[in-house]
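Dear Dr. H.,

I hope your travels went smoothly. While you were away I took the liberty of generating a structure for the chain from your last submission, since the lab meeting agenda had it listed for discussion. I wanted you to have the full record in hand beforehand rather than looking at slides cold. The sequence, exactly as received, is reproduced here:
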Amino acid sequence: MKCLTWVTVVVSLFLTACTPSPLPNNIVVSGPFEPVNNDPASTGYMFTRMQVLETLVDVDNQGRLIPGLATSWKSNNDFTEWTFNLRSGVYFHDGTLMTVDAAYNSLSVALGKPTPFSKDMIDNMEIESESSITFTLNQSYRPFPSLLSNYTTAIVAPSSFGKFNRIKTLIGTGPYKITHFEPPHSLSTTKFNDYWGEPATIENVDYITGHRSETRALMVRTGEADIVYNLDPAAVNMLRTDSNVNLFSDKIPRTTLIKLNSRHPILSDVKVRQALSLAIDRKGIAMGVMRIPDIAADQLFGPNIRDWHIRKPEKRNDNVSQTSHQQKAVQLLTEAGWIEGSDGLRYKDGKKLSLTMITYANRPELITIATAIQDQWKQIGVSLSVHMENVSAIPSGHADGSLETALMARNFANIPDPLGIMLADFSSEEGGDWGPMNWHNETVFNTIKSLSLTTDEQSYNAKIETIMTEIEQDMPLIPVIYYVQQTATSSRLKNFSFDPYERSFRLSQMKIAP
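The corresponding predicted structure, in token form, is as follows:
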């Protein structure tokens, strides 16, 4: 007989009282994501995941751009003019037709609000025909269509807007429409019968914010939820033996990285940056902290990021390899003038090799990984002080120059074409809040900028390899592990699939077992 702690009993009773029980054609989804309001500019990611909103451009599992509310798009020869052809026969949830005027108005409002990309490049947007919109840019920008896959540019009905173009009622085009919304705790939807694409099978879907991983695990275990996202290793282990629960592990375009201030007196030396990277036991962190094999990161982009992940020959005998890396790290520090003292730490000109690392609590595994790195760097004579801060401390430290190192989980899915990320973060010494800091490499800067004008695919791929080789050698960021999304579903749910770009929960594809 299993014994339950009083905490488990209380949590279970709370969930039973506060969570709607799944009905025959209803499902409940839970994750740590908080839908704080109904404005696509800030919470659109939640409404695209719930398939309420859709964008002109969609993304497949390999990061390739595919038609969404636009059936096709084309550019001129220098990528400064882009025309998007709209899908016909699309209805908003209020029953009105999506016209070119409605799409133009929605995009105009969206581009007047915060987006994860610079809008300064857009010189003009105009209606080209009764079914097409043209963007004129003031610079060549090859990855422009990928920007229109971002949730901030989702198309909403004219009736969504109130005074000053504020969202009063969110009305989209997706296979589900909103029936009830209580920010930031819950969102209820029902299927939209006039959806332009394949109609949903499940009638109603509720989303409930679950702040703790163990709470979400209990929800799926007790049948109070059908899908729970973002489970930590402890929750996964708890669910592994439950025959009523299915577990899924999927690699996503997110890399845990160490951001470095390349202007720092210690970190300005490339040999020091290389030594710090070599000293990290990535496979040990992958298994010891995350309990997931094959996620050690040997470069910036993971293997599911098409074209930008450089294939390398497999290495054998991991233990010997890590020992060799540590020895090489020690050699590099010695060459850089950092000499081991009697306390085991390294010194140069009377100053200790001491660094500060900040990280944040939003992803609980980060502090554990930071602690592991602290110990691994100590083994080569580096003193590392780790501090838990708010996530805003990283861009703030970048802006005021105070940041030394930071451990972060960088999402590369917001703009599915990596060229957009590279142009934003790797084309100047200014870097980016979540990219390099005070790093200078003319080869990388110039090659990235030339990619926006490159039309030949062979030349394009050769330039990518040049860029990634330079970055790996110069080490402005230190990759640690690739990220894996852990999800659990109830056994009654069929046809579950995970979107590695986290754009959609793919609810409309799922069914409930009879």
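Two observations you may find useful: The longest helix spans residues 318-335. The radius of gyration is 25 Å.

With kind regards,
E. W.
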